[in-house]
Amino acid sequence: PIKTHPHIHEGNALTTDWSKIIAPQNLNFIISNPPFVGFTYQSAEQKADLLAATKLKSKNIDYVCAWYFKAADFIQGTQIRCAFVSTNSICQGEQVAIIWKPLLDKFNIDFAWRTFIWNSESNQKAHVHVVIIGFSQVEGLQKFIFDGKEIILAENINAYLMNAPNIFIESRNEPICDAPPMRVGNRPTDGGNLIIEAADYEEFIRREPLAKKYIRPYIGAKEFINGKMRYCLWLVNCPPNELRKMPLVFERVKAVETFRLNCKSPITRTSKKSPALFQAIAQPTTDYLAIPRISSERRKYVPIGFMTPDIIVSDDVQYVQDATVYHFGVLISSVHMAWLKTVCGRLEMRYRYSATIVYNNFVWCEPTPEQRARIEATAQNILDVRAKYPDASLADLYDATAMPPDLRKAHELNDKAVMKAYGFAQNMTEAEIVGELFKMYQAFIG
Question: Is 244 helix (H, G, I), strand (E, B) or coil?
Fold first, then answer.
């Protein structure tokens, strides 16, 4: 029970001058659970408050960040210690560099509780994934990282809540190393009119037999991971006289034109001039390595795999054209997975793989010819073991419980080969791997 009388001041904490409520020299702690509102869902007033508090014009920062900036200014030159419950998104993806670069010039992170589910006692409770971050200008404090039941003594806690130097992984358009580029798949923006569901495929072909040569398999992340079929009308080389001979197809194309005409986006409205085509076409012309943009955090490895160019890839899959089995081996290794888990954005807790943050900033190893050959062999072994289960989807194969023992063993051998190529000890923890990768990244960018 609170024995003293509390003094409650009601108002907008972001526009209120805190020093008029209490002088900084009379304050010991600031403890808060600020509101979590993603940029897309913020009101005009909230966006204005966020801009005023942070001076950041980015369109991808959470409302909770405003409290960090407000507190950072207030505690300058004091011994005040702060701790905020925050949405975990502020420590993930491209948001990290934007908000934490200026913040870590003003204070140090004293302790951090890594992502956990915040449960309320409400009957309509929502499971929110949060972190707790303690910060101040106080020097000489022992720093702690809490991760479930584990307590880690840290020398420094960076913006990714790792025991590592203050390094910021910023958006990059091309790979930092000599690696093949990663691209985003094709974006239809068609109102669903160019897409044919598997259940409708046979009937559509029966009614419109001339369309068969223009229908191609179409994969997004769900189809790729779960082994499902979907199709699309791929009319890239369809002459207008043939298009007009296919009334069902022509009807769908006209529907695309209408859909795009009614869209708010100027780019989409402009693309009404080519309604037979996907709005953004980026189809690989050779075999490619497909990486789903969203994948479950419950899997030890993000399922990736090779596809042929006749399969149209959607924009919720990213791909590396002309990737070799060596590239596959490194990207599906525990080394790359550790990097991904640390720097990627998240959708709730699911991994959000991005080329600009994850892939383009990943520092590749420089293997000897023997080490490269070993990775190629272990990576090919993973593919060979997968092929033994033709009826199993990637979701089946990479389920944490159902993963076949021979596939698990193949991955372990590949992990060892990649670790050796990086010069990492085989018994290194995931956190230690990430710490070394951060050092390599820092050395690489100078």
Answer: helix
φ, ψ at 342 (rounded to 5°): -85, -45
Spell out a b/e string for 369-379, using b for 16 or more CB atoms within 10 Å of the CB, else e: eebbebbbebb
Asked if residue 106 lies in contact with residue 139, where contact means CB atoms within 8 angstroms, the answer is no
- Residue with token string 């390094």: 167
Q: What percent of the chain has pLDDT over 90?
A: 76
DSSP-based three-state secondary structure for 221: helix
CA distances from 91 to 130, 229, 339 (A): 10, 36, 14
**Predicted pLDDT at 124:** 56
User: Which residues, at least 6 apart from 334, have a Cβ–Cβ distance to it below 8 Å?
Assistant: 300, 301, 411, 415, 418, 419, 430, 433
- Report yes or no on whether pTM surpasses 0.90: no
Nearest Cα neighbor of 279 from 173, 196, 185 is 185
Cβ of 54: how many Cβ atoms within 10 Å? Answer: 22
What letter would DSSP give residue 6?
P
Distances in whole angstroms, Cα of residue 385 to Cα of each of 214, 228, 329, 399: 34, 20, 14, 15
